[in-house]
Amino acid sequence: MFEPWVVLRHPLDGRVQDNLRKWKTGGFRRISAERPFGDVIKSSPTPTSEKRIAPHPSLKPQAFLRRLVYASLPMGDGVVLDPFAGSGSTLAAANAVGYESVGIERDLTYVMMARSVVPKLAALAVQ
């Protein structure tokens, strides 16, 4: 299975490091001091335990989402916005790594689901 994701950003104003200082954005937060974020994130199918908590048809694994969300705020400051929140799995990932988040969802069924599952998914211990 292959699911490409694209990250779009406004053109940089000068160098990445200048944008990080001025706007706190423009790059990805490193995985560690020795390892940059990288172009490919390996992932496994969503665990059954997570699907039981949030039965959404396109639920992504918390392990994957937490890595992505962690990297999205390179200075560790800001708010994660999910304009298509669904069951709230991205919001849960943001909460799990200590970020504030805002979700938008037009399907009331998923809004109600997200209200109950976000704290449960955020509390999961993942590898």
From TrEMBL:
GO biological process: methylation
Record carries keyword S-adenosyl-L-methionine: no
Top-level EC class: transferase
Transferase found in the keyword field: yes
Gene Ontology MF terms: methyltransferase activity
Alphabetized InterPro entries for the sequence: DNA_methylase_N4/N6 (IPR002941), RM_Methyltransferase (IPR001091), SAM-dependent_MTases_sf (IPR029063)
Domain spans labelled DNA methylase N-4/N-6: 34-114
Record keywords, A-Z: Methyltransferase, Transferase
TM region(s), chain numbering: none
UniProt xrefs under Pfam families: N6_N4_Mtase (PF01555)
Catalyzed reactions: a 2'-deoxyadenosine in DNA + S-adenosyl-L-methionine = an N(6)-methyl-2'-deoxyadenosine in DNA + S-adenosyl-L-homocysteine + H(+)
EC identifiers of the protein: 2.1.1.72
Protein name: site-specific DNA-methyltransferase (adenine-specific)
Taxonomic placement: Bacteria, Pseudomonadati, Pseudomonadota, Alphaproteobacteria, Hyphomicrobiales
